[in-house]
Amino acid sequence: MSITPLDALPLERLRQRSSAKWRTYPEDVLPLFVAEADFPLAPPISAALHAAVDRGDTGYVAPRNRVAGAFAGFAERRYGWTIDPSRLRTTCDVMMGISELLRALTEPGDRVVVTPPVYPPFFAVNEHESRTVAERVPLIAGEHGWRLDLEGIDAAFARGAKAMLLCNPHNPTGTVHSRETLAELARIAQRHGAWIISDEIHAPMTMPGVTFTPFLNAAPEAAEIGFALTSASKAFNLAGLKCALILTASEEPARIVRSLPHEVEWRTSLFGLIATIAAFDDGDVWLDALIARLDLNRRLLHELLAEHVPGARYLPGEAGYLGWVDLSALGWGDDPAVKIRREARVALHLGPLFGEEGRGHVRINYGTGPEILTEAVTRIGALVGSDPRTPGESK
Q: Between 20 and 30 A from 11 (CA), which of 138, 241, 357, 378?
C-alpha cells in the first residue's frame, strides 16, 4: 500500500514554537541540532489533549491506567513482541529511568559500559556525583555501518564493569542492532553477572525493510539480565509532556523496578500519559507517514551532502531522524559545528559531545521538511566553496 509522506510545518509556523529547538538561537539560524521534529501533532494525540483540557483533567497520574495495555498492543503490532503489561512502570523520561536503575544496580565508583559515539547524556548520567564511571567501548565502524564491539564489551565486563547502557537503535548513527548481536551481548553479560539497560526510544521510527529487535526479546538470557526504556516522545514529538516506560521480562529485573521509589512513577505527567496512550493506540497511520518522510529525508541528506559538501561522509541510518556526518576531511577542526553555526547560520549538534570518536563530526536532525534540509546543507556547502584551503588541509 502506498503511503503519503508526512509534511512538516512551514518555517513561519515553526518559529512560533517556544521549545528549545526554536528559542536557543537567533531567527537567522536554522536549528537542526536537538532531537525535536518539525511535524504537526498526530491527530489522535491532539484530540486527546484537547479533550483533557476541556474536562480539566490536569491532576495526578492514577495508579491504574491504560498505558501498559496500549504499549503492549503497539509492541505486538510493530515489533511482533508480546510483553507482560504487569511488568511495565512509567516515569518522566528515559534518562531519569536510566539514572534510577543505575542507582539500584551499582555502587559509587562502579564502571558502566558505554559505546561511543553515543548520546551525550550516557556520559553525564554516569559521571553525575561520581556515582559510576563510563567504561568506553567504541562502536566498530565498517563500510556498511557500525556494530557493537562484543569482544571489547566482554573484556570490559571481565575487568569488573557492572552494567552497560545500550542504545538500541543507536544514537547518533541510527544503527539497528541485529537479533544475533543482541543475543550474544545478553549471553556475555549473563556470563559476567552484569546488567544491560537498553534505551529504545528511537525504535518506533525504524526504516522500511529493517527489523527492530527489542533487547528483552532477543534471547532468554536478555530477559534475565535486561531492562528496557522507551517512550513515544521522539517519534511523536512529545518530549515536553514527560512520560516514559520501564520494561522488564523476568522476575528479578521486575523486582528491582518495583523496588524503585514511588516518586519515580509519580514524576510521570498526566498529559504525557494521555498523549502516550493515544499515540500507541491510534497513532500507526500517522507514524507510517512520518517514517515515509524520514526515509525520503535520509536519502535526500545523502544526495545533498554529495552535491554541496564534497568530502563529507555519511551513511544513512536505519532508524530515527538523526544523521551522523564525518566532516574531518574538510579541515574544520575537531568541532566543525561551531564553524557551521557561526558562518553558515545552521545549528548542528556538536560531534565531540558524543565522545572522542565524535571529533570532526556533526549530528544533523533531518526530522524536518525537505526545503529546510536543502537550505541548511546548501548553506554549509557555501563554506566549502568559500574556504581557500582544499579539503583535507588542516586548520
A: 241
**Grid cell locating 337:** 559545528
The CATH homologous superfamily of the domain defined by 11-41+284-386 = Aspartate Aminotransferase, domain 1 (3.90.1150.10)
Q: Delimit the CATH 3.90.1150.10 region(s) of the chain.
A: 11-41+284-386
Amino acid identity of residue 271, one-letter, is: F
Question: Tens digits of per-residue pLDDT, 300-333?
Answer: 999 999 999 999 999 999 999 999 999 999 999 9
Kindly tell me the burial class for residue 2, based on how many C-beta atoms sit within 10 Å of its own C-beta (0-12, 13-18, 19 or more): exposed
Helix (H) or strand (E) holding 349: strand 346-350
pLDDT tens figures, 232-259:
999 999 999 999 999 999 999 999 999 9
pLDDT digits (tens, 9 = 90+) for 76-131: 999 999 999 999 999 999 999 999 999 999 999 999 999 999 999 999 987 765 67
CATH of 44-282, one of 3.90.226.10, 3.40.190.10, 3.40.640.10, 3.10.20.30: 3.40.640.10
CA-closest candidate to residue 198, choices 174, 163, 146: 163
- From 193, 184, 244, 245, select the one nearest 215 (Cα to Cα): 184
Q: Does pLDDT of 137 surpass 90?
A: yes
Burial of 185 (0-12, 13-18, 19+ CB in 10 A): buried
pTM confidence score: 0.95
- For CATH 3.40.640.10, the residue range(s) in the chain are 44-282
CA–CA distances in Å: residue 349 to residues 109, 202, 324, 365: 30, 17, 10, 8
